[in-house]
Structures are given as C-alpha cells and as structure tokens.
Amino acid sequence: MADGSIIYEKGKEVKRFNLDKDGNYTLSNLPLGKYQLQETKTLDGLVLNETIYDVVFTQKDLITKVYEEKKEISNDTTVFEFSKTDITGDKELEGAKLQVIDKEGNIIDEWTSGNKTHKIEGLKVGETYILREQIAPEDYVKATEYRQLYELLISLIDKIVMIFGEEKMTIKELGEIMDAGLDSLGLGVVPLSMDQVVLGDLKRSRLHEIKVLFITGMNDGKIPPNLEDRGIISDDEKELLKQYGITLSQNLLEQSMEDEFYMYMAFSKPAEELYFSYSLTDSDGTALRPSVLQKNLS
Question: What is the pLDDT of residue 140?
C-alpha cells in the first residue's frame, strides 16, 4: 500500500481454488502487484503442469480502474507405451492379443501387437493395472500375467526429487540414477517350476541363482565379438567432441571393456557347472575356429 502497510506477505498463499466444469475461474479484487499462479492438483489421466506463471498488475495511469490478466494453462495426458518383444528385447512380436485391465476387472484397452509399440493415453498415475496376454504370437509361449505396479515407479521418482531437489543434471546422469533405482526394486513372482530352462542373450539376460549354465557359440569373432570402427565419426573425433561436452556412442575401447564385463558376469553366474560349445562349420560348410577364450578356459 502507499502507506507502507502489507496486504499479503511475500511467499504466502493468497487463495486456493478449483476451476468450474468448463475449466475456467475468475479471481477478482486483487491489489496491484506481482503474483504467481501454479497448479497443485489435476484431473485423473492428466499430467500435472508444474509451470509457475507470473501475473503482474502494474498501474498504468490514474484513470484505469480495472486491470485484467488472462492465463491459459494446459495439461498433457499421461501416455504409457506397451511393447511385445521376444526374450532379447530387440524384436517386436506381431499377433499377440493383449489387454490392459483395471483392478475391478474392467477392460481399459485391448489390441493385437504389430511391428510398433502400442500407446494408451489417460491412465491414472498411482493406480494398479494388469497387462494380460490372451493369445500368444505363433511359435511363442503365452506370457504370464504381470501387474504393472506404477506406485513403485512413482515412489522411485519421489525419492530422486527428495534427494536431489532442484539440482540440475544431464539426461545421462538421470538415466544412471533411474537404472540404479530400478535395479533395486523387486517384485515377488511365483516360480514356474522347481527346475526350468531359460534361453537368453549374453548381454541382456538378468538371471539369478543359476545352477548350470550353457554358453553356446563360443567361436572366434563371436565371443568376444570382433570390433571394427565402421562409423562416420572415428574414436579420435569422439574423444575430441567429449572435450566440448558432446558425448556420442562408445568408442572401441569402451565397447571392448563392456563386452569383457558381460562375459565375466555370465561366466561367474552358475553355482555348480559351466559348459561351453562352439560350431565346427557354418551353414555353408566353411570351417570355424573356437574362441580364443577356449585356450584360457581349458
């Protein structure tokens, strides 16, 4: 005020309100000054808009009595993406009939898998949904029904916010933190049987409590794989770009170290027995050599 008295203290909430059924609200009788508008809660199926909007009323002259300021706030819908792949995670499988069901058993969406992922908009964050496979693709076994426990993911994100707050980080750093957090999450699953055989990829499979492990394809150039610099940008150029804060794909040395790490992980998994096998010839009858690792392992 002109006399120096305080109407609203800085940082204090002036008013909390709900929009009408058309998504509108008119707030009147505010003194001149600077205010901030922020959404604190949104409708189910929408993403909370956390943008802070500045609303400023500045006196223009001694004649104008009414000052108006309009703000349009929009919300994105939640989008969840579903993918049906083989065990390697690389190949999208076509022909599977899938459903997403809520906890009351209502079908939210159903579709037949194709060569692209399937997206569902408007799912409620924090709700429990069931992803059910009714018909498996030809030549594939029907998957177990999995509950999508979104509470775990939301809880993980909340913990990251609580620990790091407003600290800025790169996408790579955030990805590493998310990976570490997801690795620590666990879900109880009833075993399919007392003993079972699981086929997997050397890099992508995450198997635990393995008694016996068979590693096939122990041929020269396959395990470990031959690495060649076939990219447009050489390793020396990648290192130069790193100095300017630009990180591209791994160089040959990093790829080699990663391959060695995954081989070590695989070779040390079995608790009782480890077997290796290799091909003598390829499909054309050409002789193949065993991996150089065979000499060190025998």
Answer: 58
Cβ burial, residue 35 (10 Å; 0-12/13-18/19+): middle
Q: Looking at beta carbons, which pairs linking 55-64 to residues 24 or more positions away fall under 8 Å?
A: 57/30, 57/31, 57/32, 57/33, 58/32, 59/32
Contact, 248 vs 233, CB < 8 A?
yes
- The neighbouring-strand residues paired with 221 are 225
CA 128/CA 104 separation, integer angstroms: 10
Cis peptide upstream of residue 224 (ω within 30 degrees of 0): yes
Please give the average per-residue pLDDT across 169-176, as a whole number.
85
CB of 55 closer than 8 Å to CB of 71: yes
- Residue 156's contacts (CB-CB under 8 Å, 6 or more residues apart) are 178, 181, 182, 185
Which residues are registered as beta bridge partners of 107?
A: 101
Closest-CA residue to 132 (of 102, 156, 158, 159): 102
Each residue's pLDDT tens digit, 180-197:
887 776 655 545 455 667
- CA–CA separation, 266 and 260 (whole Å): 10
> Long-range contact list for 94-97, CB < 8 A, 24+ apart?
94/137, 95/135, 95/137, 95/138, 96/133, 96/135, 96/136, 96/137, 96/140, 97/133, 97/134, 97/135
